[in-house]
Write a structure and sequence with these properties.
15% strand; single chain; 5 strands
Length: 229
């Protein structure tokens, strides 16, 4: 059905809300994704698809970092829609990469503030790797896993390829505890030790930062790295 039909009024109300507020602060995550899909799927109820995508991938960021094949597994998402979402994700990552330029990874206060904003609003736990260049600046980010159960099961070879591709000689790990304390768990310590063990001798793990609901903790600052370096 054409946008002017059943869904046209709803879409116009959503757009009017955005015009009035001029930002997305008052929009739920599924509404943001729904609006993002308006132009990709002009004659489809994108609300249902947005909900299905978020159920499958967890949050907006991971929807936009998923592969075409994985996106196409979601009902209502065809190849063209998936390709557009991947393209938008690449655009956002390019813009995000530009924001890295002001982040000095070896300055914990700068890193802490950046990561606090990076994970802001996330309701799903994500483990991320940040490549750092010889000048100490973050140059790229990769989402290694989404959800608590997947955190220890990510592909170590994928991490290595990410570091090689970005010519990284230093790595920062970070993950969030969306609704809990930032205190490292035994699993966090074991994961950090595991990553440290597989890194090439030319790549240094500088820190593993945990972003909790109310604070951030540097595992290096807490002395955990002394046990396995």
């Amino acid at each position: 059905m054409a946008e002017e039909g059943l869904h046209g009024g709803h879409r116009e109300r959503m757009r009017a809300r955005f015009r009035t507020s001029s930002d997305l602060e008052g929009f739920a995550e599924h509404e943001v994704l729904e609006m993002l899909l308006f132009n990709i799927l002009p004659r489809v109820n994108t609300n249902d698809i947005a909900h299905r995508l978020l159920r499958q991938f967890g949050n907006l960021r991971t929807v936009l970092t998923a592969s075409v094949n994985d996106l196409c597994q979601v009902k209502g998402v065809g190849v063209k829609c998936a390709e557009q979402l991947v393209f938008l994700g690449q655009v956002f990552r390019r813009a995000e990469k530009e924001s890295f330029l002001t982040v000095q990874a070896d300055d914990y206060e700068s890193l802490r503030v950046y990561l606090k904003n990076f994970f802001y609003g996330d309701k799903t736990e994500r483990l991320c790797a940040f490549a750092v260049n010889t000048a100490g600046r973050i140059t790229a980010c990769s989402v290694l896993s989404v959800g608590i159960s997947d955190r220890a099961a990510f592909d170590m070879e994928e991490l290595k390829r990410f570091l090689i591709y970005n010519n990284a000689d230093t790595l920062v790990l970070a993950h969030n505890h969306p609704f809990g304390s930032a205190e490292p768990s035994n699993e966090d310590i074991l994961l950090t030790r595991r990553v440290q063990a597989i890194l090439d001798k030319d790549i240094r793990l500088i820190d593993h930062v945990i972003v909790g609901a109310d604070t951030e903790i540097s595992m290096r600052g807490r002395g955990f790295f002394r046990a396995f370096e």
